[in-house]
Design a protein that fits this description.
Radius of gyration: 21 Å
Helix content: 25-40%
CATH class of the largest domain: Alpha Beta
Number of domains: 2
Largest sheet: 18 strands, mixed
Shape: globular
Distance between the termini: 10 Å
Number of strands: 20
Strand content: 15-25%
CATH topology of the largest domain: Endonuclease, Chain A
Oligomer: single chain
Length: 474
């Protein structure tokens, strides 16, 4: 989703200016091809084969795979829940489950940017960067300076940015990068005369990806913008941005190991499909030795696909949940199947909790999502709204062993119209880190009760109705 300075608790919600091409051009949008969501068989993972795990050298033996699975369990795990989620990941996609990865959970802009700048500074061969938003502000210029410096030192830099996400960034910003030798590709330009790979203003590249030397990668929800200039997770007192504006709360991952090669493939595939300038010959796929204990599945989705693989994976994981489903999401506008999966999970005794924004940068999305609260609350789903920060994270934790972090919102736009990217991490140890992050957000959230919600004002109900009319296109 686009990002702008967030409103504080006393300011009215506003529609984000950089969203105008998607909202103020309804005729163009309605002329776009209408997508549909797949029907997910609820028990598909129950009949899935035993999970096969690979490392950088290829498939592992059955004995070695079993040994890795045992190491991923928590001490108190009494059921086959982990194996079921591993089998689900194996069944849902042809892309492999990859062992031997090191994964660092990064929260908010300052920590994420520091890690990204360190990786960029250490680059020796190439830097591939893909982002929805790249703003011409203090943070954006810092990234531009760092990329240009590496380009001048012989490190080839390749950049993909989304035309709508960066619609407010002047062309001169990108021309400076191009003049320095950085190869720049604009994803699906708003102007059809400049599009090289077909044109659909409704299809956007919402991924946030950085790959350095083919050895370290970053992905998640964080764009390149000064809205992330302060943190929200310093103890229990978030740090305000300049002018007293709310900090942004987001989540990112730093990854090393065999999974990086899968992310590199996704970047190069997007570059080729957008008919970017021919890339210089670089070592895009170096030998990747095991770097850590994590088993991962990298999932990219595109509106060109028959359906969103990320959507199918999430629905299947929720349908297979045995104990709990913990979702944190910035833009929550569920389709009927996601609603049904969440309600069915509660009906079979699963604890379902949602942490959603109390404030946002898009009023239509915010109220469209809230229009579903009554139905969710009546079914027994617990809803919390994050205070003291503008929530932009997109994460899920299921049964303590299935975790995902990425760019995908739980709305129609992400599942049907956007190119998205998520990582699934399997295992109890990383799940424990995700649980702590969820609990920290929960501690700074207010629970929404059914009684409270049923007494909301007529003004809010009207806004919800209006937002719901637009939910497919938001």
């Amino acid at each position: 989703m686009p990002q702008q300075a967030g409103a504080d608790d006393t300011q009215p919600l506003t529609v984000l200016p950089s969203r105008w091409p998607l909202i103020a051009l309804p005729i163009l949008v309605l002329l776009s091809a209408c997508g549909s969501l797949p029907r997910i068989v609820p028990d598909m993972a129950r009949s899935a084969p035993t999970a096969r795990i690979e490392n950088a050298r290829g498939p592992l033996s059955a004995a070695r795979s079993k040994q890795i699975i045992e190491g991923l369990r928590s001490d108190n795990q009494q059921t086959d829940v982990l194996e079921r989620h591993l089998a689900l990941e194996q069944a849902i996609s042809d892309s492999p489950l990859l062992a031997g990865n090191k994964v660092q959970l990064l929260q908010d802009g300052p920590a994420t940017y520091a890690a990204m700048f360190a990786a960029i500074g250490a680059a020796r061969d190439h830097i591939n960067m893909e982002t929805y938003i790249l703003e011409d502000d203090e943070v954006g210029r810092q990234f531009a300076d760092a990329l240009i410096e590496k380009q001048r030192r012989g490190v080839q830099v390749n950049l993909i940015y989304d035309a709508v996400g960066a619609i407010g960034t002047p062309k001169e910003f990108f021309q400076r990068l191009t003049d320095a030798g950085v190869r720049v590709t604009e994803f699906n330009p708003v102007n059809p005369l400049t599009a090289k790979a077909g044109w659909d203003v409704n299809q956007r590249d919402h991924r946030k990806l950085l790959v350095v030397d083919g050895k370290v990668a970053f992905l998640g929800g964080i764009n390149i913008s000064s809205v992330y200039s302060s943190g929200s997770t310093v103890g229990r007192r978030p740090t305000a941005r300049p002018g007293g504006k709310q900090p942004w709360r987001d989540t990112h991952l730093q990854i090393e190991g065999p999974a990086v090669a899968e992310l590199q493939k996704l970047f190069l595939d997007t570059w080729a499909k957008q008919k970017g300038e021919a890339l210089a010959a670089k070592n895009f796929f170096p030998v990747l030795n095991p770097a850590g204990p994590e088993v991962m599945h990298m999932i990219g989705s595109s509106p060109d696909d028959a359906y969103s693989l990320i959507y199918a994976t999430l629905i299947s994981a929720i349908n297979s949940a045995e104990r709990e489903v913990l979702l944190t999401n910035a833009y929550f506008v569920p389709d009927p199947q996601l609603m049904a999966s969440l309600k069915d999970a509660v009906a079979r005794g699963v604890n379902v909790q949602l942490v959603l924004p109390a404030r946002t940068d898009s009023a239509l999305v915010f109220h469209a999502g809230r229009s579903h609260y009554s139905e969710l609350l009546r079914s027994g789903i617990k809803i919390y709204e994050r205070k003291n920060a503008l929530l932009h994270a997109k994460t899920a934790l299921i049964d303590g062993v299935w975790s995902t972090v990425g760019s995908t919102n739980l709305d129609w736009r992400s599942f049907l119209h956007n190119q998205e990217l998520n990582a699934v991490v399997l295992g109890a140890e990383f799940g424990a880190r995700m649980r702590k992050a969820f609990d920290d957000d929960l501690a700074q959230s207010q629970q929404i009760t059914l009684q409270e919600w049923e007494n909301r004002s007529l003004d809010l109900r009207v806004k919800e109705l209006f937002g719901r009319l637009w939910q497919y296109w938001l």
